[in-house]
């Protein structure tokens, strides 16, 4: 259960050895991450509000700008989609009212529209305008619990709600319960729209979205949270995992449990990783930390979390991203990889 203060975590660390992040640490690629071709940059820094949270999630507005929440000053910020910014770089900052015990905003992009909701309470799902203003999705009776992710196939939202893991049609204002007994963290969706990856009880799990059936549980360690699936390239189908212990891992779901190459740390030295969000404009992945948002690219020939941009669309100077559709992890198809 997330909190908006460090006090519970500090107390827990005294008695139970729970990890307490170091302030102002900088997430850095490991040798493995560099050799694998990943690129790590800073999107926005300067969330120096103390506590255990910075901006948890991002959405891409129809105009290409990035919308994200900041619980430290209860504002919704809008940024241009470029790196190395601070809060002062924001295009706009709109105050919002805390309505839950943990008023961090989960956000996602679905069908080209940004949606979000405050965490862990009777927080209704909202739709966001490009300027950061927002209003409840008309007719939708579901209330948010933790994470959410836009299904790239049909524009729905797969979300952890008080009603369970649910499939929201934001246009119709309706939802379907995928699994009523599951209230996970760090929800993401495979690019083919068939599988939800979630954090549950300290593990990464995959669930069939159509049936709600558990596919597999991965015991990665490192306190996993947000996830994003890679499309194309050498690591097609692998899963990026943002961890609460300040590391980022690469999960290969085709490798058997117990294989040391099933989960490899590709970045470390961060503060506290939480949700991740795909940049639907260019195929990079936003990684939340306490005081900053980092951006991860898997390099040429792939993207993370969403299909790559259409052919001919100009891409950011810092990133070159292409790729092909995810074949799926369900047949556990082996790929030729450099080990």
Tell me briefly what this model is.
The chain is mainly beta and 339 residues long.
Q: Overview of this structure, please?
A:
- This protein is mainly beta and 339 residues long.
- The protein has a single domain (26-304), classed as Methylamine Dehydrogenase, Chain H (7 Propeller).
- The chain contains two helices and 27 strands.
- Strands 1-23-22-21-20-27 form a six-stranded antiparallel β-sheet. Strands 6-2-26-25-24 form a five-stranded mixed β-sheet, with no helix packed on it. It has a four-stranded antiparallel β-sheet with strand order 3-4-5-7, with no helix packed on it.
- A hairpin with a 4-residue loop joins strand 24 and strand 25 (284-288).
- It is globular, with a radius of gyration of 18 Å.
- The N and C termini lie far apart (37 Å).
- Residues 1-23 and 311-339 have low confidence and may be disordered.
The overall pLDDT, averaged over residues, is 84
CATH topology: Methylamine Dehydrogenase, Chain H
The low-confidence parts are 1-23, 311-339
- Please work out how many helical segments DSSP would assign: 2
């Amino acid at each position: 259960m997330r909190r908006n203060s460090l006090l519970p975590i500090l107390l827990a660390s005294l008695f139970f050895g729970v990890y307490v992040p170091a302030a102002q640490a900088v997430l850095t690629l490991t040798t493995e991450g560099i050799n694998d071709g990943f690129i790590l940059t800073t999107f926005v820094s300067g969330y120096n509000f103390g506590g255990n949270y910075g901006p948890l999630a991002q959405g891409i507005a129809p105009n290409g700008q990035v919308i994200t929440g900041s619980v430290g000053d209860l504002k919704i910020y809008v940024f241009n989609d470029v790196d190395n910014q601070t809060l002062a770089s924001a295009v706009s900052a709109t105050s919002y009212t805390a309505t839950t015990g943990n008023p961090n905003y989960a956000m996602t992009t679905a069908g080209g529209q940004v949606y979000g909701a405050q965490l862990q309470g009777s927080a209704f799902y909202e739709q966001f305008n490009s300027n950061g203003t927002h209003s409840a999705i008309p007719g939708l009776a579901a209330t948010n619990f933790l994470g959410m992710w836009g299904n790239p196939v049909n524009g729905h939202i797969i979300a952890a709600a008080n009603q369970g893991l649910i499939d929201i049609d934001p246009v119709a204002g309706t939802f379907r319960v995928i699994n009523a007994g599951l209230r996970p963290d760090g929800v993401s969706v495979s690019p083919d729209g068939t599988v939800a990856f979630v954090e549950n009880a300290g593990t990464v799990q995959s669930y069939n979205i159509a049936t709600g059936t558990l596919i597999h549980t991965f015991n990665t360690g490192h306190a996993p949270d947000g996830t994003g699936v890679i499309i194309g390239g050498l690591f097609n189908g692998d899963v990026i995992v943002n961890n609460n212990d300040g590391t980022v891992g690469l999960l290969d779901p085709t490798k058997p449990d117990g294989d040391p190459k099933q989960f490899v740390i590709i970045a470390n030295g961060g503060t506290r990783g939480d949700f991740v969000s795909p940049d639907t404009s260019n195929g990079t992945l936003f990684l939340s930390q306490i005081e900053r948002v980092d951006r991860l690219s898997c390099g040429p020939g792939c993207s993370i979390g969403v299909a790559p941009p259409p052919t001919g669309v100009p891409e950011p100077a810092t990133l070159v991203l292409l790729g092909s559709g995810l074949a799926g992890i369900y047949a556990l198809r082996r790929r030729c990889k450099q080990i």
